[in-house]
Amino acid sequence: MFAAIEPAPPADEFQFPKTLAEKYQPKKLEDFVGVHEPRKVMQAFVKSPFKSAWFFLGESGLGKTSMAEAVAGMIGGEVHTIASQACNVENIETAMRICAYVPKGGRGAFHVVIVNEANEMSSAGQDKFLSILDRVPDQTIFFFTSNGTDRLAKRFLSRCRVLPFKAQTVESELAAYLEKIYKAEGGTFPCSMRRLDASLRSCMGTAPPKSGKGSKL
Asked: Which helix (H) or strand (E) covers residue 176, if one does?
């Protein structure tokens, strides 16, 4: 679920520290590893985007927010992000006022509203979205990301296209990708990491390379 591998920068070139997940965050859909079904669906979507609401459901570290941002970048969308636990009526109304204007890209472009950890939104926030999602505004795409649905009303979920995120490739594709990251960072990929059962982000956090030039965990 991370980006193309690039060599680490020269040792004498100062860089502010980044996590490996930030450094290798994918920018295009083809860069995502291990989430085949969401990638396939979104690859079809970017070819002919339309006003809609999507609900990305899955465990942390599978690239839900990164994929929403990648889609927005690929279609030239104007992104508006509502942060975790900040999805209240006031912030929703602010985003909708912005979306009432033509996107920066013009008539054929889209506003892309990304709501992270949607299961943390207030009940009032859910109620506000019900009327909005009944008739999605023109040139607007919503992406809701969440680890679960236990705090969300069925009537809210019924207004979204739910797309489950599951790690579908484990021992081959993910291990090979992590090995490339270790080499790019100047480390040696440990044999104990060749059997993986977690997201790339958690693997990066629990098994850092020997020398993370410009990176941190």
From this structure: helix 173-184
Assign domain 49-164 one CATH number from 3.40.50.1400, 3.40.50.300, 1.10.150.530, 1.25.40.10.
Answer: 3.40.50.300
Q: Is the Cβ–Cβ distance between 32 and 45 less than 8 Å?
A: no
What is the DSSP secondary-structure string of 91-154? HHHHHHHHHTSPPTT-TT--EEEEESSGGGS-HHHHHHHHHHHHTPPTTEEEEEEES--TTS-H
pLDDT digits (tens, 9 = 90+) for 25-58: 788 999 888 788 999 999 999 999 999 999 999 9
Whether residue 57 contacts residue 165, with contact meaning beta carbons closer than 8 Å, is answered with yes
Q: Tell me the pTM.
A: 0.77
Helix (H, G, I), strand (E, B) or coil at 16: coil
Instruction: For residue range 133-185, list pLDDT tens digits in order.
Output: 999 999 999 999 999 999 999 999 999 999 999 876 545 666 777 777 777 77
Structure-token match 């690239």, residue found: 63
